[in-house]
Specification:
The protein is an alpha+beta fold. It has 2 domains: 147 residues, no CATH class; 84 residues, no CATH class. Helices cover 28% and strands 25% of the residues. The protein has 8 helices and 13 strands. The strands form 5 sheets. It has a 4-stranded antiparallel sheet. A 3-stranded antiparallel sheet has the order 6-7-8. Strands 1-9 form a two-stranded antiparallel sheet. Strand 4 and strand 5 form a beta hairpin. Helix 5 packs parallel to helix 8. The longest helix is centred in the middle third of the chain and has 13 residues.
Length: 259
């Protein structure tokens, strides 16, 4: 923590806003299955169609459980000030969903939906996920999956419908700079220790299709460091490379490791 604060102060002194040096990542949760708001108040459960219709008409947050055991919520739960997402998480906005669609396709669920009259539909075939963004007084944005298609669709729906809920967490990481990288590797000397080279190549392989650009006697060389930094190498990953006894060349152009 102190290291991060010192680094932030250093960049501020250089006249660079630290926010510009942070890479924002979004992490998507699995389907939410909660029965209480964050303050402990119970979320009303609608078993009958009549109950579901009543809660929607009165704009009261409610949930239900499908025959498969999946949880569906009307949009008024999302909008409730008592909160439903775990600490550090929130229901994605419509804009955030644009960046999460690929992740949703990698981990889909098809729980169907419950319409405003309380009838269940397309269970096991549709996946519907609320956003926190309103479309109009009566409607809100959501995302739709079809089990037979590999696309994510954006629609608006009445807030009275019951859809699945997922939450998102914003992760900010300091983008590595060449100066910070050299500080991490200062005084490091490479030496052979088991599979250090292989583990380092796994890290570098995330940022280049060809992590090995050359080889000498018992040593390998990476692609240009500036390209790897530009591709998004994080501070944690740089520190792992240093711990794995990788080193930086004298001309500061590439990583190297004994093999």
């Amino acid at each position: 923590m102190k290291q991060l604060k010192d680094l932030e102060q250093k960049y501020k002194e250089m006249g660079i806003e630290i926010e510009k040096l942070k890479a924002v990542k979004l992490e998507l949760s699995n389907d939410l299955k909660v029965t209480k708001y964050n303050n402990g108040d119970p979320i009303p459960k609608a078993v009958s169609n009549k109950q579901w219709k009543k809660f929607g008409k009165k704009k009261i947050g409610a949930y239900c459980i499908t025959e498969k055991g999946d949880y569906l919520y009307n949009w008024y739960v999302v909008d409730d000030k008592r909160g439903i997402a775990p600490k550090g998480w929130h229901v994605p906005t419509n804009k955030e969903w644009n960046s999460l669609e690929e992740e949703l396709l990698d981990n889909p669920s098809y729980n169907g939906y419950r319409n405003s009259n309380g009838f269940y539909s397309n269970v096991s075939y549709y996946g519907c996920f609320w956003s926190s963004t309103v479309y109009s007084d009566a409607d809100a944005w959501y995302r739709l999956l079809y089990c037979s298609y590999s696309d994510v669709y954006r629609y608006d729906s009445t807030k009275r419908y019951g859809f699945s809920l997922r939450c998102v967490k914003i992760i900010k990481e300091i983008i590595m700079t060449k100066e910070r990288l050299l500080e991490i590797f200062e005084g490091k000397n490479s030496k052979w220790e088991g599979d250090n080279a292989y583990q380092g190549l796994q890290i570098l392989g995330k940022y280049t299709d060809n992590p090995i650009q050359g080889a000498g006697h018992d040593i390998i060389y990476s692609e240009n460091i500036d390209k790897i930094l530009e591709a998004g190498l994080t501070e944690d990953e740089a520190e792992k490379l240093a711990l794995l006894n990788w080193m930086i060349s004298e001309d500061e152009d590439y990583f190297s490791c004994f093999v």
